[in-house]
Design a protein that fits this description.
about 160 residues, alpha/beta, Mannitol-specific EII, Chain A, 6-stranded mixed β-sheet, 5 helices, 8 strands, about 25% strand
């Protein structure tokens, strides 16, 4: 998948269609674990701590059921977008008070330019901005269908 001008690999193993987590901390841990198992990151504990620190600075929930936690770190092997979905929703501290049902975790290597990293986050936000895209992502029956929605939304 291409987000902006940077090629972003969309690995279907980085789509978690039904997060088991019931809270923000456990959702971050589940998503980092999936990225580690897929070979997208090394040192998952270090990355998880970085994401926790970022959440303490301020919530990454955008509202409308979407959060975009992100990290640029030496623990990340290549730019990746990890998508987690949950039908029940997770309290994330969104300004609108709504629980999060879609989590886009934007990950980039530490040596990636800051502008490219912000572009990755901006593209994830642009995909999530439209209600049509959020609905299609939540109702997609498979990781392949999720990938198709993301490809279509970023075209």
């Amino acid at each position: 998948m291409t987000l902006g001008t940077a090629p972003i690999g969309y690995d279907l193993s980085l789509c978690i269609p039904n997060l088991k987590a019931k809270g923000k901390e456990s959702a971050l841990a589940e998503m980092v674990s999936a990225a580690h198992l897929a070979g997208a990151i090394r040192e998952p504990d270090l990355l998880l701590e970085l994401l926790r620190v970022r959440e303490r600075v301020g919530s990454t929930a955008l509202g409308k059921g979407v959060a975009i936690p992100s990290a640029r770190s030496v623990t990340v092997l290549a730019p990746r977008l990890v998508l987690g979905r949950t039908a029940r929703g997770i309290e994330w501290g969104a300004a609108d008070g709504h629980p999060v049902t879609l989590i886009f975790m934007a990950l980039a290597p530490g040596e990636w330019r800051e502008e490219a990293f912000h572009g990755l986050i901006a593209r994830a936000a642009a995909v999530a901005r439209l209600q049509r895209n959020r609905h299609r992502l939540l109702s997609a029956p498979s990781p392949e269908a999720v990938a198709e929605v993301l490809r279509g939304a970023s075209a």
